[in-house]
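To whoever is on call:

I kicked off a structure prediction for a single chain this morning and the downstream step that reads the tokens threw a length-mismatch warning. I double-checked the sequence; it's 166 residues and nothing unusual in it as far as I can see. Pasting both halves so you can look.
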Amino acid sequence: MAFPPVVVRQPRPNDIVDNPIEVCGIGTGFEAVLVARVLDANGAEVREVSFRAGGTGVWGNFRVPIELPDSLDTAQGRLEVWGSSGSGRPVGKVVVPIVFGSALVSPYLGFAQYTVQGGDTLSSIAGLFYDDRDQWPRIFEANRNQISDPDLIFAGQVLRIPQEGP
């Protein structure tokens, strides 16, 4: 079985990521060099790291932590991972949309799942989880992959509710 030059197994698309982001997968690159870059929603680079995995024509496992700054301008972002080529051009670039947990709540602990009931609104759910109905944007940002309009949620929808650590 042939693999593409880079396969990212974690994080999955639209995952809420912690700090550091734990990136893992398999890949190959010229002289075993791969690159991972984290960008915010505006396309600004947050961090870039180079690391080794596999080699020319050989696939290798990788697991690399990527430290994020203490504050981020946006909750939405993306991870890009690619193998290097002898000419310096990216090979097999993989782009994974991600959500920065620490931009939603700080410190970010994880998320609870909540099944929307009839009559729920994001503000009523925020009141339930945060005792503050005005915190609904946290829930909206955590679920942008399934909510495009904060006024349109439906019964049975399972939402991720970011949780703050101690």
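Update from on-call: the warning came from a stale cache, not from the record. Cleared it. Sanity check on the structure: Residues 105-164 form a domain with the Membrane-bound Lytic Murein Transglycosylase D; Chain A fold (CATH 3.10.350.10).
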